[in-house]
Amino acid sequence: MNKKPTIAVVGATGLVGTTFLKILEERAFPFENLYLMASAKSAGKSIRFRGVEYVVEELGEDSFRKPIDIALFSAGAGISLKYAPIAAASGCIVVDNSSAWRMDPDVPLIVPEVNPEAVEKATKGIIANPNCSTIQAMLPIKALHDAYKVRRIVYATYQSVSGAGVKGLRDLEEGLKGNDICKAFPHPIAGNCIPHIDVFLDNGYTKEEMKMVNETRKILGDESIQITATTVRVPVRGSHSESINLEFERPFDLQDAKAKLAAMSGLVVLDDPATNTYPLARDAEGTDEVYVGRIRRDFSVESGLNLWCVADNIRKGAATNTVQIAELLIK
What we know:
Blueprint: E1 7-10, H1 15-26, E2 34-38, E3 46-49, E4 52-55, E5 57-58, E6 70-73, H2 77-89, E7 93-96, E8 126-128, H3 132-148, E9 150-159, H4 165-176, H5 207-220, E10 226-233, E11 240-248, H6 254-263, E12 267-269, H7 281-284, E13 290-298, E14 304-311, H8 315-330
């Protein structure tokens, strides 16, 4: 783009939408005009951004008749399915944070450190932001896949309640006070680990688990990788943690693997068992990096590696990654 873009934030009053605005401000994202859109319930609210008061307008079919270059969506899959094509038809490029378009073969699924070139394939005018738990895993896996070619991945995730939005946070807060409520989860989350994120599918996996399987293959452009996943909700406010087990087709040197991880953009290695140094959810919260540690050879297979991966799921797992995609567009 040769000019500063006009941007819209759809779902501007939600947990991710408000984080969009925070990150746009932090990263000094250049823009000409800004429109904030949300449901009728939130329309009329005033949001202060870069010293200016913006009034939230109700999202409707006429919202994109005004000239908008980039729209950042985080209002749920149903809204995205309806309004993203309307926005794209007006000449706007949509970067969508929902699951609506991720597996559409004509919609690129992008983690900017991993597959930035895919931005050129947005023929529908829509780009999808991957699932939060997929995004953070892609950085270490890409660094190692390029070197040793990943054959198989075993994911086990430990996902914070903020991944379920404001209701998830409220369930935990009330539970810690002794008031067990289940607005976001099927069981009380305080003092609990719930091996159930999203709905169960006919194959016994949850939708969240299959997102990780399918999105990983799409982002890496390799359908041959064998992948399994178990996703668990844990009583942590923010940041997702993941145990990732990788089996490679080629042999590897452990120190070389650590060096490749350390060289990956956006990735921070915290790995010193002697000082109890490894990534922690509390330390990752509020940051944009992905952290890896507990990097060690898996002796149960010929060429295997274990690592522990942590990132803020609302920032890098959603809002920051979306803004980074928008930055690719203006470049």
